[in-house]
Amino acid sequence: MAERRIPVDLVGDVLTRPEQTVPECGGRKVYQSRVRLGNRPTLLRVIVDERADPAVVVTVYQTSRITKYWREP
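Below the sequence we write its predicted structure tokens.
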């Protein structure tokens, strides 16, 4: 998170109140929300391994390619 300059509190918000959760391969789950970092809208994705006890955040990243990852109901 530090290397990518993503605030810890923003990651916490996504983990506690994600706009979407998407299953990922390998038993992982993606918690994601559309956020504004700087002056542009981005998608903040938090990859979590929920098989671990307690669950482990594997990685966190932001992307401008919202439509690639966003799942419409």
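The chain has a mean pLDDT of 92.
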